[in-house]
Amino acid sequence: MTCHVYLKDMWASGPVVVEQSILTPWRCCPYEHPARSIKDFSLSHGKDSRSSDGSDGDENKERGNWSSKGDYLLSMVGYAVGLGNVWRFPYLTYQNGGGAFLIPYTLMLALAGLPLFFMECSLGQFASQGPIYVWRILPLFQGVGFTMVIISAFVSVYYNVIIAYAIYYLFASFQKVLPWSECFSWADEFCSKTQIVNDCNTTLHGEIIHANYTFVTSNNLTCINGTINYKPVQFPSEQYWNKVALQRSSGLDETGNVVWYLALCLLLAWMIVAAALFKGIKSSGKVVYFTALFPYVILLILLVRGATLEGAMDGIQYYIGRQSNFTKLMEAEVWKDAATQIFYSLSVAWGGLVALSSYNRFNNNCYSDAITVCVVNCVTSVFAGFAVFSILGHMAFVSQRPVSEVVNSGFNLAFVAYPEALSKLPVSPLWSFLFFFMLLLLGLDSQFASIETLTTTIQDFFPRVMKKLRIPVTMGLCTVLFLLGLICVTEAGIYWVNLIDHFCAGWGILFSAVLEVAGVVYIYGGNRFIQDIEMMIGHKSRLFWLWWRICWFFVTPALLMAILLWSLATFSPPSYGSVQYPTWGSAVGWCMIIFCVIWIPIVAIVKIVKAEGTLFERIASCCQPAANWGPYLERHRGERYSHMVDPKKEKEHEIPTVFGLIYTQ
Questions:
Q1: 218 labeled part of a ligand binding site
Q2: Is 499 labelled as part of a ligand binding site?
Q3: Predicted pLDDT of residue 404
Q4: Does residue 445 have a known ligand-binding role?
Q5: Mean pLDDT for all residues in the chain
Q6: pLDDT digit string, tens, across residues 443-464
Q7: Is 421 annotated as a binding residue?
Q8: Average pLDDT in the 404-431 region?
Q9: Residue 78, annotated ligand binder?
Q10: 194: Cβ contacts below 8 Å, ≥ 6 apart
């Protein structure tokens, strides 16, 4: 019995006929001509077969694989869903028209976020390499991988400091009365839970006079409506944040001492990270079942509690209800904010997506994974907004202020506005504990992936060392990053956190993303990349790839370039609140980001110098995939990569396939 199935030709022009006999194995041949055998090349959608040797059944014995699909998906969700989903997205939505903001947000997800997310997941899974070695696809741009890893290292330093803040507030919640609920001994005269009248107009002996409020009250007078001036006051939670938690100094020039309890919280944060990663993905993949899922339980609890409070609907109306302003869609700033939020929320171009995906089995459906994680991330952002604004609405109701005066973002939301709102609830320590425990878990998930990005890079360079000494290397890495982070827990620590975030988590990542898309699509070849993906997930129709081609070739690069140019054009010197940074502080920031991106031209020059031939031939050679680019395991290479060099070898010339341009010297 013989059957014919026409498949898209992956290595020659025209269709390929796949012929099978009951007594013979599958074989492929162009146009019924004698077939060339294909080595273990399968496009099956079924479950990957597990190896018989090895207790964990890893497909890739050298690098290892995720123990299960759930480990990978939850790790990706934990990486994408972070603090920004809680403390940035709700504020951006409120600020940019409420419910109207969801329109540009969804469009930017489809046009920029998801295509780039899918691309990075596919790259890592196809080559089973981390963010540096995956650039064997285009040696000229390997410096982009170095930039991603270095930026991830910088961000890991201060990100764990934010986790340390959450740990401190978590411990501070174990008190019968929350320490920021009242103006205690640490407060000054400007601390107040209510507005304080400074002066006003009043009537005295038939004449209207302007008088101090003390004079008005001592003479049993009353202020005339509309003439009252209030003192600039601060909530107890704001003064607690600055005076007690941070012991904040006057500026970057005044470093001060290390705040010992923040240093201990930072040490605890790094101990948790090291413990979760002591076996790499094998251990972190189990931890995320709790750290990635339990925040949703807490969010639901906070939402239900918030929805039962007076004033909650007022807050939600400001967030996404009747206060929505669709005229905001006419402002370019709204679309820029939507694109920027999607880009940073999905954690693309940081190297983490490539690193985590590199541990997938070759035939894993990375397409469905990308869509699942992106949708979950965005739904989480919207869901978190309801939990945040319902309680902020209650806070506005109790303090008799409009919602617009109590809403904030970033540190001021997480450690000032929301704690202040929680302190007004019955059994406030419980709600405070839940909130900061949620922040802790959200931060840890993202931190796990960031450190895994660094350890994956080390593993790619020194696989034998990592196989024998993974625990000491991981502990050593966490120790070094802890020591680097001590500057961020001094009295000027918050200024350093803000400085690193301002420079390293900004346009440097955007620049890497633009080069990543341009390199893969325009130099390596978008159609060629699609063929690589089809080797993993199976052949798809032209209609299926139409949307991705439109995005990868045109829309996504254009949007990323627009965001990058906008970010550069609107770049301003760093500041924290009303505190301006000294010139030397800005210089340090510029040195950090230059150190991150300078590897792009340096590595490109090194590659060109090491190549052979004329200058044009050298550049052309570096624009071709390295000889060891392709599937890590031989059984997955098929005919397209049958001549591929062992990935563990370091060769600089291009892959000798019929798709590549071969330069002979």
A1: no
A2: no
A3: 83
A4: yes
A5: 87
A6: 999 999 999 999 999 999 999 9
A7: no
A8: 91
A9: yes
A10: 399, 400
